[in-house]
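hey so u asked for the seq, here:
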Amino acid sequence: MGRRSIKSPSMEPIKILVVVWLLFIVASLGNALFHLSRRDRTEEDSRKMARALTVRIGLSLALFVLLMAGWYFGFFKTAGGH
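ran it, structure tokens below
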């Protein structure tokens, strides 16, 4: 008999959180692109672009730390199942 995959019900909210977090990261990057691509860019646009990129870096680092913490505390299963 083959192995049956047992899906942990607590894994779904984590997946949803990661996807939503990634959407925020992409939205922040899009915001920076908008301010970069404006034809009549001002000093204010430059500040807004830098702020959006700073937010993106912060969100990315926070997501990385949360994923590493989740792995360390056993919220994620390894692919090998050992």
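The longest helix spans residues 43-72. The radius of gyration is 19 Å.
lmk if thats what u needed
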